[in-house]
Amino acid sequence: MTKNKRISSVLASALCLCFFSTPVAAQDDLLADLESEQEEITEYAFATFKGTRAINLQSPQLPAKGVLQYIFIHRFGAFNNDYLYNNLGMNTAEVALQLDYGVTDWLNLGLSSGTASPRTYSGFVKYRIARQSKGARVMPFSLVGYSSLTWNNERYTLEVPYNESDRLSFTNQLVIARKFSQRFSLEVVPTHVHFNLVSLNSEDNDILSIGTAARLKLTQQIGLSLEYIYQINPLETSLHTLGAEVVMQQNQNVLSAGIDIETGGHVFQIFFTNSRGIADPYTIAQTPGQWKDGAIHLGFNISRVFTIVKPKLPEAE
Amino acid sequence: MKIKLIALALLFSVGVFAQKLSTRTGYVKFFSEAPVENIEAANKQVSSVINTENGEFAFLVPIKGFQFEKALMQEHFNENYMESGKFPNCTFKGTISNFSEVDFTKDGTYRATFSGVMTLHGVEKKMEEKATITVKDGKVTLSSEFKIRPEDYGVEIPAGKKDNISSVIEVTVKISYDKK
Questions:
Q1: What pLDDT is recorded for position A178?
Q2: Are residues B4 and A9, on separate chains, in Cβ contact within 8 Å?
Q3: Taking a C-beta distance cutoff of 8 angstroms, is the pair A105, A64 a contact?
Q4: Range list of H helices, A44-195
Q5: Chain A residues within an 8 Å CB radius of B4
Q6: B1: buried, middle or exposed (CB in 10 Å: 19+, 13-18, 0-12)?
Q7: Average pLDDT rounded to a whole number, residues B35-43
Q8: Residue A194 pLDDT > 90, yes or no?
Q9: Nearest to A71 by CA among A266, A270, A285, A213
């Protein structure tokens, strides 16, 4: 090695030293380092609505995996229907019970049963297609599908030939929801109801409607909600009773307004609505009463969740 | 000559970066004991760094990384108490005050005191706690247990929830570091 080369080598080393030691000075603030190194994560919107139902419509919420939910759905008789004589609507009240389970975080299966107007049994499947998120993955809204099958369990009023399948009706909803801020969420719900049997030839078996619901959070525990279901091609008759008789009925759009109160594992939804039916097809397509006539029902949904399968928490190494 | 240079560069780079121990998979758990229910949540996304030259120490905990046994608790924790949309991280910045007594290159168990400022729910607060630093086969692990009061950090527990959520939360930290 010549002298010249040795000098250049020393110089190069010195350069190296400078180069590699610079980062030390630049990395003084350890916390700033951690913050800048933090990976951009996908942040999902949660609690877009409080309950799994907005009021009558489905909300984008699903119970978490391993969670069993029980909803008690209640509706008093209308204010314009001999309200005092009917024990403040208690005598003409409607009740439904719903039990559902979160199979996975994106799939929810449930059963429900409701009293008169008409007596029904239902089963449903609700599934999340997309989740509103920001950060690494951006999705402007949540998409949730819902399909239910309803069995009308009324007795046939006249001895007429019928198929058992005439009792069935189906509801399909697509919930498109967005949490705009910590306080305000909105959903639009295109809805399709199919009745296997309707009363008149002139009626469609498939009733299309557009639902929309908004939620405004007032405090940590209390929120306001407003819901409207507009029917595109309403039925002209009542399908509450089964048989040969045709009962003409003008079916109205459904307007509901209420408050949500959340306490731990319960959500109380107390609302006013002109819809009387509790099972989906009857709520949506079989509403004879109007707000302006006082055909308003006081109602509530009370839900309770039970964690059946606990998720495994992360553990230290 | 070239090899010499590279060797030299490597030597310096190792020398420089070996001063820091860091991780992104540290563990933190908290526990609240109250008459109605006990609440436990764990998080394995803690990032932390120790500068072994001067004892500087920092950690960062993403609040949404806490996992609970009940999904609804997790929702309430983020939405109502920690407001994690607004305050996504809990951070700590400070020093290990007796770091000169800790030999990060020698196997052993060392008692350490760290002091600095913790930021939680947007509120900064000075704190000083004890920790144990274990060096085993060159692997450094820091573990600590301490208590915090949510009200110190502006996290209000409504009167109706006093039987569900303790006013003192027990925190357990266990962080294993990699050389950087």
A1: 97
A2: yes
A3: yes
A4: none
A5: 9
A6: exposed
A7: 93
A8: yes
A9: A266
B19–A43: do the CB atoms touch at under 8 Å? no
pTM: 0.82
Mean pLDDT of chain B, nearest integer: 88
Neighbours of B35 (CB within 10 A): 9
Tokens of B67: 């996992």
Contact A20 B13 (CB under 8 A): yes
CB contact under 8 A, A20 and B78: no
Give the C-alpha separation, A296 to A139, whole Å.
38
At A90 the pLDDT is 86
Test the A interface: residue of B17, B31, B45, B70 with most A CBs within 10 Å = B70
Q: Are A38 and B60 a contacting pair at CB < 8 A?
A: yes
A226: part of which helix (H) or strand (E)? strand A222-231
CA angle A140, A222, A175 (to 5 degrees): 30
Amino acid at A163: N
- B148 phi and psi angles, rounded to 5 deg: -130, 155
Cβ–Cβ below 8 Å for A30 and B58: yes
Q: Looking at CA atoms only, how far is residue A169 from chain B in angstroms?
A: 33
| Structure token pair of residue A311 | 């998720």
State CA B115 to chain mean position distance. Answer: 12
The Cα–Cα gap between A48 and A217 comes to: 10
Nearest to B77 by CA among B47, B32, B123, B27: B32
Which letter, b or e, does each residue of A180-189 get, where b requires 16 or more Cβ atoms within 10 Å of its Cβ?
A: eeeeebbbeb
Of A21, A43, A46, the CB nearest to B12: A21
Q: What is the mean pLDDT of residues A86-115?
A: 92
Q: Which amino acid is at A132?
A: Q
For residue A307, pLDDT over 50 is answered with yes
The answer to whether A123 and A111 are in contact (CB under 8 A) is yes
Residue A60 token pair: 């984008």
The residue ranges of DSSP E strands in chain B, in sequence order, are 20-33, 38-51, 56-62, 67-68, 89-96, 108-120, 123-136, 139-148, 169-179
Q: What is the pLDDT of residues A121-179, one digit of tens each?
A: 999 999 999 999 998 899 999 999 999 999 999 888 777 788 889 999 999 999 999 99
CA distance A42 to A235: 45
Judging contacts by C-beta atoms under 8 Å, the chain B residues touching residue A264 are 72, 164
Give the amino acid at A257: A
For residues B124-136, give the mean pLDDT: 94
Cβ separation B75–A47 shorter than 8 A: yes
Q: Which pLDDT score is estimated for A42?
A: 84
In terms of DSSP bridges, do strands A67-75 and A168-179 run parallel, antiparallel, or are they unpaired?
unpaired
Give the pLDDT score at B145: 96
Tokens linked to A290 = 């109007």
Whether A40 has its CB under 8 Å from any CB of chain B: the answer is no
DSSP assignment letter at B55: -
